[in-house]
Write a structure and sequence with these properties.
Number of domains: 2
Structural class: mainly alpha
Number of helices: 16
Strand order of the largest sheet: 1-2
Radius of gyration: 25 Å
CATH topology of the largest domain: ABC transporter involved in vitamin B12 uptake, BtuC
CATH architecture of the largest domain: Orthogonal Bundle
Strand content: under 5%
Order of helices and strands: HEEHHHHHHHEHHHHHEHHH
Shape: globular
Length: about 450
């Protein structure tokens, strides 16, 4: 390793320039069409093309400078971080046990503070974060624990939402009665998906689950007599507090408890409802991991052939993983329908499945805490970058690439074994096996 005062040798400088030039060329190929050319509709309705090659030049120059500096100083920076890793692990070992409790306390107290200052926007953001956390925890059973790559998880989300909407709209049933029914119907849909894919693995499984999600969306779009087609379902009733609606009437929640009425009370109640559902999902997932079925999921994730050799019924294992993950997706879908009071097939496209899968992967495969952290970071980043309009997706994508490069196993990569001898001991990230085991050549 060269000393700090030692100048760089020409070969190293030339190699850095070459690497930076290649990175700039790739960036130019990506940005010249996505950023450099913009199409708009003109006053007469004709297509107007606007060029922004100056912005492309700035982006390409930034990539060139970043790649050049990384090639020159990347090894030194990495060596510095490697030197600090033992210190970080020591700090994490002391703080780690208290992090879940602190996050839970913040999740319970923060909305009350937001309500006190009249900030409904942050309460809505909290509802969105907890909803996607619950979806991530449900998908984490299928992808993180069982190792089954599911790209059609939004289908179960849609089944739960439409189940509640149709039952409440046509039969006048309440949210709490429809909630378990929506979960059961979504679990049944998960079993229907599981049977055709019992013999599939890897990319083939992902393609079939992707097709299943699109089939559900097209059914919702074309079965107009039942689902309303592209118009969706409107007037979905919201939840009540033991029969007390959140309105300004004399029989409303505020009048019954003698407090001033505020429209924000409904959203504060919705927040705690979805928080309770997410905590229930997390608790059930943790309990299932310690049961024989949970250990069978993890064995299936590591090596399906070895799992069969041990006498584990892989058919039952896969079907239970799909059913449990789908059930929690159905719960979240029912909550989404009662919160929005309107649903349509456009709300359940592939991008939702991709976003939830990104939460699971970036958080750490099989990590409950990682899902919550990733959902908070991703949705919080979306809101922080909202002012950048179209550039926020570019910045967000670059951040995801950086996370996958420097934290390839997710934000929370350590794994706690479900079964341990004498005392619990976390498995360090470098010893965690890949989620999918490849057979030797």
């Amino acid at each position: 390793m060269p000393r700090e005062s030692e100048p760089f040798k020409p070969p190293a400088l030339a190699a850095a320039l070459k690497e930076a030039a290649i990175a700039a060329a790739i960036a130019f190929g990506l940005f010249v069409l996505m950023v450099g050319i913009k199409t708009d509709q003109g006053p007469t309705g004709a297509l107007v093309i606007t060029t922004r090659f100056g912005t492309v030049g700035v982006l390409v120059g930034g990539v060139f400078a970043g790649a050049f500096l990384r090639a020159l100083f990347g090894a030194r920076i990495k060596a510095s971080f490697d030197f600090l890793i033992p210190t970080w692990r020591t700090i994490a070992a002391h703080i780690g046990p208290y992090v879940p409790a602190l996050l839970l306390a913040f999740a319970l107290i923060a909305p009350i503070c937001f309500y006190a200052v009249g900030n409904r926007y942050l309460i809505d953001l909290g509802i969105l974060i907890v909803t996607y956390t619950m979806l991530g925890l449900g998908l984490n059973i299928v992808v993180g624990l069982a190792g089954l790559l599911d790209l059609g998880y939004v289908a179960f989300y849609a089944v739960g939402a439409y189940s509640y909407a149709l039952l409440a709209h046509h039969f006048g049933l309440s949210f709490w009665i429809c909630l378990p029914v929506a979960g059961i119907l979504a679990a049944f849909a998960g079993i229907l998906l599981g049977f055709p894919v019992l013999r599939l693995r890897g990319d083939y499984l992902a393609i079939v689950t992707l097709g299943f999600g699109e089939i559900i969306r097209l059914i919702l779009l074309n079965w107009q007599d039942l689902t309303g087609g592209p118009n969706g379902i409107v007037g979905i009733p919201g939840p009540s507090f033991f029969g007390l609606p959140f309105n300004s009437s004399e029989k409303g929640f505020a009048a019954t408890f003698g407090i001033p009425f505020s429209p924000t009370q409904k959203y504060l109640y919705l927040y705690y409802v979805i928080l309770a559902l997410a905590l229930l999902t997390n608790w059930v997932s943790l309990r299932l991991r310690r049961l024989p079925i949970g250990r069978a999921w993890e064995a299936l994730r590591e090596d399906e052939i070895a799992c069969r050799a041990l006498g584990i019924n892989t058919t039952t294992t896969k079907l239970t993983a799909f059913a449990m993950g789908a059930m929690f997706g159905g719960f979240a879908g029912a909550f989404y329908a009662t919160r929005q009071n309107f649903i349509s097939p456009e709300s359940f496209n592939f991008s939702e499945s991709a976003f939830v899968l990104a939460i699971v992967v970036l958080g750490g495969m099989g990590s409950q805490l990682g899902v919550a952290v990733a959902a908070t970071v991703m949705l919080g980043a979306f809101e922080l970058l909202r002012e950048f309009d179209q550039y926020r997706m570019l910045v967000f994508g670059a951040a995801m690439v950086a996370v996958m490069i420097y934290r390839p196993r997710g934000l929370v990569s350590a794994r706690t074994p479900s079964v341990f001898l004498r005392r619990r001991k976390d498995v360090p990230p470098e010893l965690v096996a890949e989620a999918r085991t490849e057979s030797p050549a």
